[in-house]
């Protein structure tokens, strides 16, 4: 089980670089006495609440090419402000890192993944026929896909938004990557991955497709995307791949030991709750529903082993704080969770 | 000996399963002889990384993508390439 305190390298980073003196001191103290979780979480909370002394900086992107090997980060092919490389994957990721950075800055005033200007590092062309993309704790890694099922992992913006949000979750105190807390971790990455895309396209909640990974499948695969936040379980149904296994509510929660307890399966439940809340509230989903989820995630209060009900209760409380306990927004959040079978006490 | 590899996780979260009998695949038989399952560390959950469940006869191990090396990695790659689905 991963120990989800703020890792020492993060505290080092805060201690060295953060503009807020209080945070630097706290991070230094935490490092010095190594007293673990409580101070680390307090640091996360302070980061979340700190008023920036100046606006977020510009992104600091570096793109590497692994040349189909598995050594990271690989050869540097593009640095911040550098010219396009002509390599489609490298240039797509340079752009998508920029859009994701801009989304977090504009929507939530967040300065990069760690809230303190973390440079964004990505490697493309990782391994051979590699059907995956991941955040390894400090950088992004993208395969090219096997070209039979997946043709790209760099094309869809929401993949990059999803992966970088794993970094945001990590720097917010973390959510254990198994069972319900793991499914929440996955769901948060889908939520903000989708919101980055909606922000980029200027879509309102009712205009958005709420799909994750649209445009990755090779032609011939029966499916539109990997996941549907609006209608979990309907994204694909293919003779070779099987059917999208995501449940849409708690009555269909999947118990499995695979995939760390089905973190990519049961994420369908909180995904749909977010989509329902955002659609009921209306307008641009990142502005209100996204703000509620973002403030909850980054508030430093979410236990690393939170289950759906705990997180649901916290989003409802956040909605009450932001918009009033009797507000339409607060009601929408409660109703959304109730619809997917998660009761808020 | 039957060898079954089930890969789950990854960004896509899709399960991929493949199976061979080492009797039909001498290469796999030689790799199995080199594998020490006792050396495989407990899988440490990591976001969007693959998790491999590997059955070799009546032995079973779960291993995270980042810890899959050497002859076990070669066996997994071989089974996924030759064991269908």
Provide structural commentary.
The complex is a heterodimer of chains A (about 350) and B (about 80). By secondary structure, chain A is α/β, with parallel strands linked by helices. Chain A has 3 domains: about 10-50, no CATH class; about 60-155, Elastase, domain 1 (Roll), CATH 3.10.170; about 180-340, Orthogonal Bundle (Neutral Protease, domain 2), CATH 1.10.390. In chain A, about 45% of the residues lie in helices and about 10% in strands. Chain A is built from 11 helices and 9 strands. Chain A has helices at about 10-15, 20-35, 35-50, 90-110, 155-170, 180-200, 260, 270-280, 290-300, 310-325, 330-340; strands at about 60-65, 75-80, 120-125, 135, 140, 210, 225-230, 235-240, 240-245. In chain A, strand 4 (about 135) and strand 5 (about 140) form a beta hairpin. The two termini of chain A are about 30 Å apart. Mean pLDDT of chain A is about 90; it is low at about 1-15 and about 30-40. By secondary structure, chain B is α+β, with helices and mostly antiparallel strands. Chain B has 2 helices and 4 strands, in the order ββαββα. In chain B, a hairpin with a 2-residue loop joins strand 3 and strand 4. The model of chain B has no long low-confidence stretch (mean pLDDT about 95). The interface between A and B is medium-sized, with 34 and 19 residues.
For this entry, give a set of tags:
heterodimer; A: 345 residues; alpha/beta; Elastase, domain 1; Neutral Protease, domain 2; two-stranded antiparallel sheet; globular; disordered N terminus; B: 85 residues; 2 helices
Short structural description:
The complex is a heterodimer of chains A (345) and B (85). Helices cover 44% and strands 8% of the residues of chain A.
């Amino acid at each position: 089980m991963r120990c989800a305190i703020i890792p020492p390298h993060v505290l080092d980073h805060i201690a060295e670089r953060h503009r807020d003196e209080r945070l630097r001191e706290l991070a230094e103290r935490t490092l010095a006495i190594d007293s673990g979780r409580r101070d680390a979480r307090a640091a996360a909370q302070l980061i979340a609440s700190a008023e920036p002394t100046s606006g977020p900086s510009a992104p600091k992107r570096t793109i590497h090419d692994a040349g189909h090997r598995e050594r990271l980060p690989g050869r540097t092919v593009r640095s911040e402000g550098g010219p396009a490389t002509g390599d489609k994957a490298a240039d797509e990721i340079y752009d998508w890192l920029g859009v994701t950075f801009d989304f977090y800055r504009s929507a939530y005033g967040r300065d990069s993944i760690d809230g303190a200007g973390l440079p964004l590092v990505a490697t493309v062309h990782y391994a051979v026929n590699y059907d995956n993309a991941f955040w390894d704790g400090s950088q992004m890694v993208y395969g090219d896909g096997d070209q039979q099922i997946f043709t790209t992992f760099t094309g869809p913006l929401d993949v990059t938004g999803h992966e970088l949000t794993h970094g945001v979750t990590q720097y917010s105190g973390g959510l254990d990557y198994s069972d319900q807390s793991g499914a929440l971790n996955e769901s948060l990455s889908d939520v903000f991955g989708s919101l980055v895309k909606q922000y980029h396209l200027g879509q309102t909640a009712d205009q958005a497709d709420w799909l994750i990974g649209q445009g990755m499948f090779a032609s011939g695969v029966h499916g539109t995307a990997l996941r549907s936040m609006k209608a979990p379980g309907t994204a694909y149904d293919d003779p070779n791949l099987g059917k999208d296994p995501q449940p849409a509510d708690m009555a269909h929660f999947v118990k499995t030991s695979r995939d760390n307890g089905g973190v990519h399966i049961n994420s369908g439940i909180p995904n749909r709750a977010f989509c329902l809340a955002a659609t009921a509230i209306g307008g641009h989903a990142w502005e209100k529903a996204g703000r509620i989820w973002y403030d909850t995630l980054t508030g430093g209060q979410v236990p690393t082993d939170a289950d759906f009900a705990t997180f649901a209760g916290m989003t409802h409380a956040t909605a009450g704080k932001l918009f009033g306990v009797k507000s339409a927004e607060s009601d929408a959040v409660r109703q959304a969770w109730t619809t997917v079978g998660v009761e808020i006490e | 000996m039957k060898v079954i590899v089930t890969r789950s996780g990854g960004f896509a979260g899709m399960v991929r399963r493949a199976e061979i009998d080492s009797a039909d695949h001498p290469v796999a038989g030689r790799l199995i002889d080199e594998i020490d399952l006792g050396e495989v560390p407990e899988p440490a959950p990591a976001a969007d990384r693959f998790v491999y469940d590997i059955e070799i006869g009546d032995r079973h191990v779960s291993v995270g993508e980042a810890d899959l090396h050497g002859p076990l990695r070669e066996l997994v790659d071989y089974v996924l390439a030759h064991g269908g689905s």
